[in-house]
Amino acid sequence: MFRSRRWLKILFALGLVWLGSALWQTYKPLPPGVDVTGPWRAAQEVSFLADLTFVDAAGSRHSEQAIFDAAFAMIAQAERLIVLDMFLFNDFAGAESAILRPLSGELSRALLARMAQVPGLRVIVVTDPINTVYGGVASPHLEALQMAGAQVIQTDLAALRASNPAWSGPWALCCAWLGNRAAGGWLPNPFAAEKITLRSWLALPNFRANHRKTLIVDQGTGWQALVASANPHDASSAHGNIALRFSGAAALDLLQSEAAVAAFSGVPLHGLPAANAPPVSAGPRLRVLTEAAIARALIDTTDRAAPGDALDVAVFYLAHRGLIAALKSAHARGVNVRVLLDPNEDAFGRKKNGVPNRQVARELVAAGIPVRWCDTHGEQCHAKLLLHRGRHDTTLIAGSANFTRRNLDNLNLETSMQLVAGAGHPAIDDALHWFELNWTNEPGRRFSTTYAHYQDDALLRRLWYRIGEAAGFSTW
């Protein structure tokens, strides 16, 4: 009896330690520079870019790409500074068997070539540890860049709050301090053929990520930047994606947001320029949003939509309860809401179960909101975009953040841009055209299909969506 009570006390004490660590990982202070709403800046040279994937009348998949072609052109003219932050920067293919564009190699070669042409060029690459499977494999691309003189910064994900506290709580106590090494792996790799260590597998369920996709370069005497939903990842090269390219003070605001990530990752970046132009309050304007600032902007824009306005959403994952409630409320007061979603059918050659989008789509359709699916054939509809057309101007929010708890509630690192402009602005017009094309299709090019095509009324998957979204057990 005494022995059993002693074990109960030990288990109870361990449970309290687990709970305490989980709560700390959930609510600990954010690193400096996270959750930023940048000042409004004059919209300079803003362009909307898209990678389009569609099927023809015979059912064959086609891809028209623009985003990384633009990124490579930006890199090719840089003279002083390149700062790149990309979530997936690797040639991992998973189980994908289709012919892929080698984006990771193209990006590496573009950076190495420009460094060779301009010996004094400063190149800073910020990335996520997933590209080495959390230290369990080597990254040839990152190592080549580092050997050539680039500053490669692995984001310190431990500084972020836990998106899966049930795992990250004990992980912080038992395993995080173990480190890892890119040799001696003996377990299957979920992303590639190379074996990984047990420590890599133990790191995976934390689900933390630097999910940003940004590029900043000098442009003559000024600065130019790109914020995208696209990764330089070979297995993602067929995905549909969007991006905003822009110049001016907003590019320097973006640069400072990346300096903050480097700083809390233990690598302060000295000598970076900052914007000294005053903010603007009228005319075409844009601003940088990171982490939960993106959620606030999405919900505020949706809440401000008036009867008769149009609100269009196109996103890879839609699961955030606050935004879903705002969309349903907007529709109820007479806003013309349309939602275009990825069916969550495919992930790099593997089949998915449709969660969370099919469960959210069911809820939206029941509320009267029209929903269509991207007509995917192995690739993903990877855009993250909201468009609000009001009486006087249009608001576009686009970037790296999916519309989920993990992406919008200060868990992942994310960057999106908010652009406000009147009718006739080229970037706004191109974004509106992009949505209409994907929503309506055109002869010989099919981008989307009806809600009924992927309709899912299964109760168990609806429960899993709600539990996974609330508790952080999911990967979305």
Index terms:
single chain; 476 residues; alpha+beta; Endonuclease, Chain A; nine-stranded mixed beta sheet; 13 helices; 33% helix
Explain this structure.
With 476 residues, the chain is an alpha+beta fold. The protein has two domains: 41-264, Endonuclease Chain A (Endonuclease, Chain A), CATH 3.30.870.10; 285-471, Endonuclease, Chain A (2-Layer Sandwich). It has helices at 2-27, 67-76, 103-117, 140-147, 165-174, 198-203, 249-264, 292-304, 321-332, 357-366, 405-408, 426-440, 459-471; strands spanning 41-42, 44-55, 61-64, 81-86, 122-127, 151-154, 213-219, 222-228, 241-247, 285-290, 310-315, 336-341, 346-347, 350-351, 371-374, 384-389, 394-399, 415-421, 448-450. A nine-stranded mixed β-sheet has the order 1-10-18-17-16-11-12-15-19, sandwiched between helices. It has an eight-stranded mixed β-sheet with strand order 3-2-9-8-7-4-5-6, with helices on both faces. Strand 13 and strand 14 (350-351) form a beta hairpin. The chain is globular, with a radius of gyration of 22 Å. The mean pLDDT is 94.
Strand content: 15-25%
Architecture of the largest domain, CATH level 2? 2-Layer Sandwich
Determine and state the CATH class of the largest domain: Alpha Beta
Largest sheet: 9 strands, mixed
What is the CATH homology-level superfamily of the largest domain?
Endonuclease Chain A
Question: Judging from the principal axes of the Cα atoms, what is the shape?
Answer: globular
* Structure class: alpha+beta
Query: How is the largest sheet built, in terms of strand order?
Result: 1-10-18-17-16-11-12-15-19
Can you give the mean pLDDT? Answer: 94
What level of helicity do the residues show? 25-40%
Count of individual helical segments = 13
Question: Over all CA atoms, what is the radius of gyration?
Answer: 22 Å
Beta-strand segment tally: 19
Number of domains: 2
Distance between the termini: 46 Å
List unreliable stretches of 5+ residues.
Answer: none
In the CATH scheme, what's the topology name of the largest domain? Endonuclease, Chain A
